[in-house]
Amino acid sequence: MRLSVIPIWLAFIFLLTDIRAEDGSAAWLRYAPPPNAHQLQQYVPNKIAILNGTVTSPVFSAGKELKQGIESILHRNNATSITSHLSRTDIIIVGTLDQFTKAYGNIGSETKLEGDSFWLKYDTSLKNVYIIGADQRGALYGVFEYLRLLALGSDVSKLNVVRAPMGPIRWVNQWDNMGGDITREYGGDSIFFSNGNISQNLTRAGQFARILSSIGINSCVVNNVNANATLLSSSNIQGLARIADVFRPWGVQLSISIDFAAPQDFGGLSTYDPVDPTVVSWWDSKVKELYTAIPDMGGFLIKADSEGQAGPAQYNRTLAQGANIFADALAPFNGIVMYRAFVYNQLNESDMKADRANAAVQFFQPFDGQFRDNVVVQIKNGPIDFQVREPTSPLFGVLQKTNVAMEVEVAQEYLGQQCHLVYLPPLWKLTLDFDLQVDNKPSKVRDIISGKRFNRALGGMAAVTNVGLNSTWLGSHLAMSNLYGYGRLAWDADSSSEEIIQDWIRLTFGHDQKVIQVIQDMSMQSWPAYENYSGNLGIQTLTDILYTHFGPNPQTADGNGWGQWTRTDKYGLGMDRSVSTGTGFSGQYPPKVAKMYETFETTPDELALWFHHLNYTHKLHSGKTVIQHFYDAHYEGAQTAANFVSMWKSLDGKIDAERFEDVLERQVYQAGHSIVWRDSIVNYFYNWSGIPDTHGRVGHHPYRIEAESMKLEGYAPYKVSPFEAASNFTAITVNNTVGTATATLKYPDGVYDVAVQYYDLYGGTSHYEIYLNNNSVGSFYSNTTMGHTPSVYLDGISATRHTFHSVNIKSGDTLRIVGTPDGNDPAPLDYVAILPPGILD
Ligand SMILES: *[C@@H]1O[C@H](CO)[C@@H](O)[C@H](O)[C@H]1NC(C)=O
Ligand SMILES: *[C@@H]1O[C@H](CO)[C@@H](O)[C@H](O)[C@H]1NC(C)=O
Ligand SMILES: *[C@@H]1O[C@H](CO)[C@@H](O)[C@H](O)[C@H]1NC(C)=O
Ligand SMILES: *[C@@H]1O[C@H](CO)[C@@H](O)[C@H](O)[C@H]1NC(C)=O
Ligand SMILES: *[C@@H]1O[C@H](CO)[C@@H](O)[C@H](O)[C@H]1NC(C)=O
Ligand SMILES: *[C@@H]1O[C@H](CO)[C@@H](O)[C@H](O)[C@H]1NC(C)=O
Ligand SMILES: *[C@@H]1O[C@H](CO)[C@@H](O)[C@H](O)[C@H]1NC(C)=O
Ligand SMILES: *[C@@H]1O[C@H](CO)[C@@H](O)[C@H](O)[C@H]1NC(C)=O
Ligand SMILES: *[C@@H]1O[C@H](CO)[C@@H](O)[C@H](O)[C@H]1NC(C)=O
Ligand SMILES: *[C@@H]1O[C@H](CO)[C@@H](O)[C@H](O)[C@H]1NC(C)=O
Ligand SMILES: *[C@@H]1O[C@H](CO)[C@@H](O)[C@H](O)[C@H]1NC(C)=O
Ligand SMILES: *[C@@H]1O[C@H](CO)[C@@H](O)[C@H](O)[C@H]1NC(C)=O
Q1: Per-residue pLDDT tens digits for 538-551
Q2: Closest to 531 (Cα-Cα) out of 521, 540, 522
Q3: Minimum-distance ligand to the CA of 666?
Q4: What structural domains does the chain harbor?
Q5: Mean pLDDT, rounded, for 804-833
Q6: Which of 311, 465, 568, 818 is the 20 to 30 Å CA partner of 116?
């Protein structure tokens, strides 16, 4: 056990104010006192007036939150009271502008407040704090903003700001299934569903709504976009109403994904043709039933004609007809249709003009102007699917008479599944800040989705999230910076990634300068590092796209109709997407941007292989060849991930033990798995190209002992597929009750780290014990999947390592590994690395 670092006086406060253990459940709402808490006291009155909130209203929640927050942040012992006496001085007033003007007249509230915005002011002469919302939700957002400022230790003595969101759409999409599992489940089961029903216990759902509200999110879609039509049963609608009840006090509207074919699948009609009158009236009455139960429902999210989902194409109806049937049904209730632009068909890889990236514009462009005013087309940031690097979707520049929102993925589906640290705001900002130069006018994506550029009423952002029952919400403490960052950007896309992460660290881990610096450095380096050790130069992530979307498996991109092709051969790789010789994708951008991407000469290196097919020996603008760039980037990326471990360890004693250990475990895992990535990708392309690494690293591992070269008993060599997922293409597996692999070590006497590279398969917990001259060095079980999607194979998903530190080794020592298989897991071993200090292999 490590000693707690919390000062005694603070620990006392924690006890008094009942702050939870640091299990991550409080997220960034820990309300810990900043170092200057005592200086803030005088500016924070201890009476709170809530203007006319009913118990379930956001203004009422705002008052409660404010009292709780202030008492915790300023360590006041229950000394802040909520009063109904509307005194004129020394009071915090929380309410809507209307109520405020009624009660106090027009004191300085001349600013116009619109949808969800708020006004925050400290009146120095009256010693009042005004937290005034355009509406109730705005007042609640104002309270969260005020508490954020206090918790950050900001100067609140001169406060006078109006804050308004970028756009009205600030949604999250959970992909929860009614069975209680989640698609992309890396943080525990659903907080909404269990056993095919809406959960009885919705405590966590309410807590989630509070977290969402604190970052300005106003709607949550609770079920998978691949929707189950039975959600629309009367008893499930009653269940949804219970979720809406726990959302409502936090100003979060419940929304749902719907199955386009529900009238037939669930309603028993013979068709789901969107223009069929029986279908129209079926949806009308279903929508009425929903709004009777949930009068403030947000609307529908629709994935149609995509990846096997039903849609209007089935009946030769247009996407606009498909969307408008719901828009018309929802309009009387002010409901919104979020219609995903993620529509594409399987394609023929031999057709050099075929390109999945072309699909969205091809499908949607003809219908611009035909969507109803309450339809918002939800467009992923890039044209394919949340890859590590993609250009901005050209659809943002094409739909000028349609409301649009940008979809991002907080769930790290292709980006390490919350087991790798990848801070995503810098990736999202690339698209938000991208200037499409439509009609040669400034056309940043953020100004398009805010509605400004094309003068649209609706717009904003939506994020795929995957919070679950895990106390950390996302399965990983550090992954929460992505949820926080999403909310901040959806509110204000101008926020910088650095500013967001700094605030998040202060709120989540405290104000220690070193803590802030280290976590900020790790976070800012994390996406570049992940890109370095996965897919480079715009080739996409190179993860296993046919199975788990987790570890490396570059060959799954080609040889199928999914269109995430790399077109790798022995000469080179990349998709030619130019107009002159390729698929024509670059021509979907407005002229200036199209011209930039048309030729390699003007395409930035980071997207070189997205837009062009290049030979391995092609020289990039950097001066490196394509293949050497791959080699160098992969070694650099894995080194950065290794550095994260020592960086994090430097915070020992500055962070509570529980979170310190949880994060450390993940960073150690990432460091090991980034080596799996590195080796897989460099070996794969070395195998194709035959071009050696000019630095001699690829295929050369002086510190490794291949398991297949050890003396084996009960173990037998196993050819791993994909080949690149094993060092020397080969591992060993136990074909008996127990296996032993032995080797004589011929390293100079010294202290080494001993890294055991193995595979952790789903469906069994093998045991490994390592001996040096018959003395046990240590042992471990293979059950550390940490929440990512597991694999039943020996591959780049299951490959991982366990390291024993500081082992004394003498030349001639005998290393013996005893593997005991279990279930489906045959105790596989790839190699052992005997690592001198500072060496990564
Ligand atoms: C806080 O104060 C209120 C009103 O003064 C009182 O009803 C309540 O019991 C107090 N709570 C605690 C925990 O002292
Ligand atoms: C709040 O509502 C009550 C009745 O519901 C009304 O008498 C009172 O004037 C209202 N207060 C404000 C400040 O609007
Ligand atoms: C839909 O949910 C029901 C339970 O409510 C379940 O029986 C059925 O298997 C689900 N359908 C699919 C496709 O998941
Ligand atoms: C789901 O809820 C319905 C209605 O409350 C109930 O009839 C059914 O038995 C429940 N199913 C399960 C699996 O709990
Ligand atoms: C409901 O869930 C909360 C949060 O997980 C838990 O603390 C509480 O004990 C649960 N209540 C019941 C009745 O199971
Ligand atoms: C859709 O149109 C195609 C060709 O125009 C036709 O072959 C097909 O029968 C139509 N399908 C339906 C369901 O109307
Ligand atoms: C795929 O495209 C190639 C080249 O254009 C063509 O020869 C082939 O017939 C196509 N295959 C199918 C199934 O359409
Ligand atoms: C790329 O390699 C191919 C095959 O060796 C060769 O035909 C082609 O000329 C090369 N292209 C360039 C630009 O070097
Ligand atoms: C690589 O594997 C082959 C068998 O597949 C084996 O003969 C060779 O010794 C191995 N190389 C090393 C360095 O262990
Ligand atoms: C598997 O183990 C048996 C002994 O249990 C041994 O006879 C056999 O050779 C092993 N198979 C391989 C491929 O080594
Ligand atoms: C791994 O398995 C062992 C043996 O069954 C068990 O004692 C241990 O708690 C497991 N660890 C985890 C993280 O599940
Ligand atoms: C949270 O998830 C992680 C990873 O799946 C797991 O190790 C941990 O035990 C979980 N904790 C809780 C409280 O569910």
Answers
A1: 999 999 999 999 99
A2: 540
A3: 12
A4: 8-163 (3.30.379.10), 169-493 (3.20.20.80), 510-575+613-691 (3.90.1330.10), 704-835 (2.60.120.260)
A5: 98
A6: 465
